[in-house]
């Protein structure tokens, strides 16, 4: 479980999150909606200690992220807006192996994790291909595989569709749907809600750093219209 307890955070004295409290259960698919600048990235970066609260606390499975960020990172995988920022190796296989290698695992376990992660994103057997030569959608899927190789309980994706065409976006969404069905928690921030609402168990909408809607998708769509977050009809 990921738990926010009265989290307050400011950039240069400008408050972004104020007294934010949330509980996200294992296995939930949570969609974070809201306009640019509403605080989605800031909130999500607290889930594995990339940012730490000015006051309040974030807990992953009962342990404070600020006190034990390494534990949080082993449970909460992050996929950033531009996957190119997160690659550390030239080939698919080497990149996905990087996280498990840093855990000091045996080669056989590393290979097994890479195989499972690549299968989960439909890139099995493509270990030796160069990342620079892949399409945007394939790169996004490699970034997801890199996070999955750490065997996280939750995957956090911040605007993962940026720069993807519709088929690539669809392929990433299909992978997220399959991961969610297998029990991985998904926290997805996007301002583009097409085809995403129906996958979510829960929609959290932010506005000016506050959670203004927290509801199942159908109910959230109605409530969102009241808070000026534009969404397509389900
Ligand atoms: P979203 O992900 O919803 O677009 P962000 O969390 O990125 O929202 O931004 C929330 C607010 O925090 C915005 O007002 C933004 O300008 C501000 N902000 C984000 N990152 C920084 C930063 N590194 N320095 C200063 N202000 C920032």
Automatic annotation (TrEMBL):
It is found in: Cell membrane. Keywords: ATP-binding, Cell membrane, Membrane, Nucleotide-binding, Translocase, Transport. It comes from the Archaea. One of its GO terms (cellular component) is ATP-binding cassette (ABC) transporter complex. Belongs to the ABC transporter superfamily. Probably part of an ABC transporter complex. Responsible for energy coupling to the transport system. This is Biotin transport system ATP-binding protein. It comes from Natronobacterium haloterrestre (Halobiforma haloterrestris).
């Amino acid at each position: 479980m990921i738990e926010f307890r009265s989290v307050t955070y400011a950039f240069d004295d400008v408050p972004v999150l104020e007294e934010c409290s949330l509980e996200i259960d294992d296995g939930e698919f949570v969609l974070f909606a809201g306009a640019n600048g509403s605080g989605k990235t800031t909130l999500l970066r607290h889930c594995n200690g990339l940012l730490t609260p000015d006051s309040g606390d974030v807990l992953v499975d009962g342990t404070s992220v600020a006190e034990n960020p390494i534990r949080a990172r082993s449970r909460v995988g992050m996929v950033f807006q531009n996957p190119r920022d997160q690659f550390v190796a030239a080939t698919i296989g080497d990149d996905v192996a990087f996280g498990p290698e840093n855990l000091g695992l045996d080669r056989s376990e590393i290979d097994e994790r890479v195989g499972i992660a690549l299968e989960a994103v439909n890139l099995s057997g493509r270990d030796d291909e160069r990342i620079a030569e892949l399409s945007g959608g394939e790169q996004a899927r490699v970034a997801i595989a890199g996070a999955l190789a750490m065997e996280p309980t939750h995957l956090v994706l911040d605007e993962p569709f940026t720069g993807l065409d519709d088929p690539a976006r669809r392929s990433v969404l299909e992978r997220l749907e399959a991961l969610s069905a297998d029990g991985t928690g998904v926290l997805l921030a996007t301002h583009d809600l097409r085809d995403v609402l129906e996958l979510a168990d829960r929609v959290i909408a932010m506005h000016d750093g506050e959670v203004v809607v927290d509801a199942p998708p159908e109910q959230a769509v109605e409530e969102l219209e009241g808070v000026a977050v534009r969404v397509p009809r389900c």
